[in-house]
Design a protein that fits this description.
By secondary structure, this protein is α+β, with helices and mostly antiparallel strands. It has three domains: 13-52 and 160-232 and 374-409, FAD/NAD(P)-binding domain; 99-152, no CATH class; 233-254 and 262-371, no CATH class. Helix content is 31%, strand content 27%. It is built from eleven helices and 21 strands. The strands form four sheets. Strands 5, 6, 7, 14, 15, 16, 17, 18 and 19 form a nine-stranded mixed beta sheet that branches. A six-stranded mixed beta sheet has the order 9-2-1-13-21-20. A three-stranded antiparallel beta sheet has the order 3-8-4. β1 (13-17), α1 and β2 (38-43) form a beta-alpha-beta unit. α1 (21-33) packs parallel to α5 (159-172), α1 (21-33) runs parallel beside α11 and α9 crosses α10 (334-341). The longest helix has 19 residues, at 71-89. The relative contact order is 0.19.
Length: 412
């Protein structure tokens, strides 16, 4: 099928690639801004939210970690408020259970103080510093440490439920959501941009005025289909979770996090309450050998070649091999995994957890091996490509959508 309308006509047409929470939010925002527009969303999996959206910790971040003035900081602040309103409107559970970021000893206080400055510069609502073990226990009776940041506005939600609600809204507004439609080609043609997708019915083509690529773990490959830069390159990391036994899941009221190491892109293994009442520990972070498979031994030769063939990965590995060794111990041993977590909540150890789910994170690297920390969005000639949208992208999704649609429609 081929459908085309000239840009600027009353029947504008848009194609969204990716059925995670960011792609869904963009499609929804376009239909809200341009009622009657033709919007089609293509997702290669048979369901929405099949990857990062459906395999994360479910945290609605308050904005503690992000460089002041960055896109992450600005869009997280806007996005957390929009998301809370959205969850309430669509009856998706969202609980402000709060979070403690804990410094366990004096050696972490320099990083802790820097983190506090960042959080305050970002205007994290209700943030307060808690000094001393006794004061920490007033918030989390079983947590241990010398100082903590308490963020009562940090929340948990069901991101799959949010994504499914967005999907229903898109269809109700006249948009299309095509599942099992893997985009195999994107090219600029006279009158717009052609999308070619493979599915059960064979290959189909559709020409639209503008394409927005929200491909997550496939974002670099999809961007290159239409002439985007080869970097940043996605290197996948897997994160494993442990589920705490029912007998001890009430030992943590909300969330307990470590002070992150700014040299590494992850927040560290932490305790997180889920909206179903369960308590999980994790995720860790170790190199994944597949971008879309969730078994502990999953391996995809194409994905491995892409990672090992990228010079930036080797630079990153050289600079972070010690952290990699530590993470590998946790992958191989439940006791090693919990040894770090138990510093923060001593009463929960390896005997109190079982292996739970596994998630994959799209980490963007530059050619020199440096981490791409901020959201990265490229736009050129009818194609907008989200090249890097790690955490807090789920929290920020509705604000990211506003940002993208402002640019696409020229509404700034």
């Amino acid at each position: 099928m081929t459908v085309s309308h000239p840009i600027g006509s009353s029947a504008q047409t848009f194609g969204i690639v990716g059925g995670g929470i960011v792609g869904l939010a963009v499609a929804r925002e376009l239909l809200q801004r341009r009622p009657g527009a033709s919007v089609v969303l293509l997702e290669k999996e048979p369901r929405l939210a099949a990857h990062q959206t459906g395999h994360n910790s479910g945290v609605v971040h308050a904005g503690i970690y992000y460089k002041p003035g960055s896109l992450k900081a600005k869009l997280c602040a806007r996005g957390r408020d929009l998301l809370k309103e959205y969850a309430a409107e669509h009856h998706v559970p969202l609980l402000e259970c709060g979070k403690l970021v804990v410094a366990v000893d004096s050696g972490e206080l320099a990083r802790f103080d820097a983190l506090e400055k960042t959080a305050r510069a970002n205007g994290v609502p209700g943030l307060r510093r808690v000094d001393g073990a006794e004061a920490i226990r007033e918030v989390e009776p079983n947590a241990a440490g010398v100082a903590a940041l308490h963020s009562p506005a940090t929340a948990i939600t069901d991101y799959v439920g949010i994504a499914e609600a967005m999907g229903r809204e898109i269809v109700a507004a006249g948009g299309e959501v095509l599942l099992g439609a893997e985009v195999a080609g994107i090219r600029r043609v006279p009158g717009g941009v052609e999308l070619r997708a493979k599915g059960a019915a064979g290959e189909q083509a559709r020409t639209v005025d503008h394409v927005v690529i929200c491909g997550g773990l496939q974002s670099d490959r999809l961007g290159e289909l239409v002439g985007g830069p080869a970097a940043p390159r996605i290197v996948p990391f897997r994160g494993e979770y442990m589920r705490v036994a029912a007998a001890k899941q009430e030992l943590v009221r909300g969330m307990v996090y470590p002070v992150p190491d700014p040299r590494y892109p992850f927040l560290g293994v932490h305790f997180t309450r889920r909206v179903d009442g369960s308590l999980e520990v994790g995720p860790n972070a170790f190199l994944a050998l597949s971008r879309d498979r969730y078994g502990r031994a999953s391996f995809d030769p194409h994905d491995v070649r892409d990672t090992l063939g990228f010079g930036g990965f080797w630079s990153f590995a050289r600079d972070n091999w010690r952290a990699g060794v530590t993470e590998l111990r946790g992958v191989l041993s439940r006791h090693a995994y919990m040894r770090t977590a138990q510093r923060y909540v001593p009463a929960i150890g390896a005997a109190d957890v079982v292996r739970a789910g596994l998630g994959l994170r799209a980490q963007a690297l530059e050619r020199d091996g440096s981490l791409v920390d901020d959201f990265v969005i490229h736009a050129a000639d009818g194609v907008t490509s989200v090249r890097n949208a790690p955490s807090p992208a789920a929290t920020s999704s509705l604000a990211i959508a506003e940002h993208i649609v402002d640019e696409v429609l020229g509404d700034r």
